[in-house]
Amino acid sequence: MPEWLASPAGQYLCLWEQSYLDRAVADVFGFHALQLGFPALDALQANRMPHRWLGCDAYPEPWSLDREVLLTNYEALPFSDASLDLLVLPHTLELSYDPHATLREVQRVLVPEGRVVICGFNPNSLWGLGKSCGLGFANTGDFIGYGRLRDWLRLLSFEVESTSYGCYRPAMKTERWLQRWDWMDAAGLRWWPIFGSVYGVVAVKRVHGMRLMSPAWKKALRHRVAVVTTASKGME
User: Fold this and answer.
1) What three-state secondary structure class fits 118?
2) Closest Cα to residue 205, out of 107, 119, 87?
3) Which domains occur in the chain, in start order?
4) Is the pTM of this model over 0.90?
């Protein structure tokens, strides 16, 4: 995949995904965040958590030498249950040996109400058509459709919070021809948004039966206001 990422289409993809990930993780708060795979992107650069790691299943290329790298198996992460606040999976499921096991592991290590951000190739797109016809996209894994991913997330008690699509241009081999199709990005967002070649999903881990408790002083304040209101009506 590093060779494909160096192509004009690969750089086009990285630019869109870096911009999307910066927006998706900027306002996610907590203490511990993990990017799992795809070291070509710094998916956590816009996040402000104090502890951030890059997890890879093999030592990465020199892209990520300025970051703390954690060598790990995606299906057996070295973290205890409910210990991470944010996980980012840029094409991790597509390149994983067992995407179901990887997603189950993500669910295990996330805290309740924690977030996972997933980027993936859309099989229902120009790039998906090109891959099915054998026109490039070597070593990019198996494309996982949004509907399929959404079903997996629901089975693991995740709630999809937002979905975005991008990269509507054909995967041209030269920068010149890629730029000639730049009008398709604006047209795609307006006329056929769900057919972008790549998608981003933000999902929240829900725990059934769990209810966030408000501070005791807020309950006391509400009770006090209710008493005053009742008394006022009685005096009238």
Assistant:
1) strand
2) 107
3) 2-235 (3.40.50.150)
4) no
